[in-house]
Amino acid sequence: MPKADEAAVLALYRSLPAHQRREIAAASTPQLRAQLVRIERKLAMDRSPGSMASVLTDGREMQAPHLAKIDAAFERVAAGKPTKLLLTMPPRHGKSRRAARWAPLWYLRRRPEHRVMIASYSSDLADDHGRWIRDAILNYSPQLGISLRPGSSAANRFDLAGTEGGAVMAGVGGGLTGKGAHLAVVDDPIKDAAEASSLTMRKRLWEWWQAVLLTRIEPGGSVILIQTRWDEDDLAGRVLADEGDRWTVIDLPALALAEDDALGRPLGEPLWPERYDLAALSEIRRSVGERVWWSLYMQQPRPQDGGVWEWSWITDNRISAAQFRGIDLARIVVAVDPAGGESAVGDETGIVAVATDRDGHLYVLDDRSGNRGADAWGREACLLAIELRADAIIVEANYGGDMSKQILQQAWQELHREKRTENMLMPAVLPVTAKHGKRLRAEPIAQLYEQGRVHHVGEWPVLEQQMVTWVAGMDSPDRMDAAVHGMTQLADPQHAGVTASGYRDGRLRGRR
Question: Are the C-beta atoms of 433 and 398 separated by less than 8 Å?
Fold first, then answer.
């Protein structure tokens, strides 16, 4: 093949999708295939930090979907799209190695004219990252296509040959005067729990963030903050409170908590099951305790103190489904707290099923809460009531009044037409009007928890986290409100303003 034709084929090859490239390679001569292999390696080097790492380490570098999220952020920045990214994830899941080492190295290869800044909780850790990147450039210079400027090879600052690009490393709180960056990567800005719990240290970190780091970003530059959560008021918490609407937020708990999980995981699915499966995470949870588990691993930090609920009240009285089977129940209700009311937390509709036995103990049976429109939440509440044979649906009536009752009646009629009501009488719709403040409503139920009279059947992690992190004065989340409404009705129906004592239709007959 003439050289000109061969060059044209190779240029076309680079632009083709992967499956077509494979077909061409399979039909190529050994000589051409060798050139295609070199092109494939270069394409892989260009594609992403993880792909480059795999090429340079012959596939030994760890890969995982959550690490690809870090890759994607750097790919956007390299493509010229200014980015403000906050990514939270648990320790020992590869974030620092990818975000503060491989990804900045890949970025300098793609944009050698740019300057990168890397900051961590200490200058020693930042310098370790810088030393790793510097040594990688020295070791892989021919494959990377970049090299160090002669005489510029310090661990905390180095420049690239033939360009103005390079990198600078700093500890959080350190000076950066005169040093600008097109990309700033802040990785693990908090050292430990003692630092996170210190108001003075948190304030100092925030002042450094505002007055030092952000002032060094070049026009159109990007900032990537990757950390493990320590405290509600840590750097990530302040960023979210101050300008969260201007940031892309990717939250990656050790176990999936929400239906809209960033990786599309089902609820309860581990973040990196190949390294930390459910058994390993359960052992970690037992070892570190609930507070550390929910902050460092689940990215849901709780207040140090002052909460209405305590973890031990839930965990010490939890029962399994097998234990629950032998309990003689008196009533079951589904409680609903529609979105759009007093709470501004999450804007979910709370749908929680609770029951009581003949001794007055309460049981949390299910949590079907979520972001749902009126038609969807009405149907979900009715389906749960059918599944559990609930005698009533308790619904917050402060915001919606008769409309909430109408939504439930219409949903039940639709399910009846679909022959899905299983010949049940429609549960009584019992509106509850919250006449008292959130704390006055929650405290009597919290006292029942403290007395060991409330039992969660299985684990309901989002609901439980909302309970133990809620402090009077905060907006109360809808799941918690729904649970409180349901348990208030069962614990003291007269005080709740509604009652099932007027049932004359036998709906409670046969309740086990």
Answer: yes
* Angle at alpha carbon of residue 341, lines to 336 and 343, rounded to 5°: 90
| pLDDT category of residue 395 using cuts at 50, 70 and 90 | very high
Distance CA 123, CA 131 (A): 12
The pLDDT-based confidence of 56 (bands split at 50, 70, 90) is very high
> What tens digit of pLDDT does each residue of 463-478 get?
988 888 787 666 678 8
Strand partners, 472: 474
Q: Residue 437: its pLDDT value, please?
A: 62
CA–CA separation, 468 vs 309, rounded Å? 5
CB 346 within 8 A of CB 470: no
- Is 504:350 a contact under the CB 8 Å cutoff? no
Structure tokens at 56: 């340079």
Contact in structure between 331 and 501 (CB atoms under 8 Å) = no
Q: Which helix (H) or strand (E) is 183 found in, with range?
A: strand 181-187
Cα dihedral sign, 293-296-301-307: positive
- CB-CB neighbours of 44 under 10 Å: 16
**3-state SS of 51-119?**
HHHHHHCCCCCCCCHHHHHHHHHHHHHHCCCCCEEEEECCCCCCHHHHHHHHHHHHHHHHCCCCEEEEE
How many of the other CB atoms lie within 10 Å of CB of 145?
12
Q: Which two tokens stand for residue 325?
A: 């089977």
Angle of CA points 131, 132, 134, to nearest 5°: 65
Rounded to whole angstroms, how far apart are CA atoms 38 and 112? 22
Alpha helices in 230-271 (DSSP H): 235-243
HSE value, Cβ hemisphere, 13 Å, CA-based, for 53: 21
